[in-house]
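BUG: 3D viewer hangs when loading the predicted structure for this chain

Environment: internal workstation, default settings.
Expected: structure renders.
Actual: progress bar stalls at 90%.

Input used:
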Amino acid sequence: MKHPFEILPPAVRKRVFLVLLIWTLGLMVAMQVINRPLQTAAAPAGIVSYELAWTPARARAILAAWEPQFNPPMGFKLTKPYYAAFSLGFDYLFMPSYAAAIALGVLLAGKRRGAVFSRAGTWLGWGALVAAGFDALENFALWRQLIDLPASPWPQVAAVCATIKFTLILLGLAYALLGWLAPRRSV
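Structure tokens produced before the viewer hung:
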């Protein structure tokens, strides 16, 4: 099996990765700005608390805490669930960006190491893309909770997808960091 980004010529991989990394970090900053109003006592991590609610009761408590109107930066009066819906929509732009950046970072890190390390990177490269797929499913489940009352199974579906997504992302990031920060083996 080949890594999903081995189709890129080796000479351009690092430049494409740097562009993707900068774009992804910019989107992360935007996501933090969007998430800030969603941080409440019921949802201390904002949208991430909602992603990992697990139960209908916890999801309802988060949505109830988001009900009061607030004035976002643009001055429009919105309820926070509408702001959460915007966050979920914006996340669809973020998904391919982080997935591609992690997958390409894993490929670059794997090429710095031996064949066994590189083979694991192939799986983790695909894992980053799979993480974006689970993120999309998770957002669908969260959206269903926003438009309906958060009844089973949507909080559980969202939490399972979020857990798999975060696990795959963290594995890819750890692999890439290990590949770049650990001293090279002399051959």
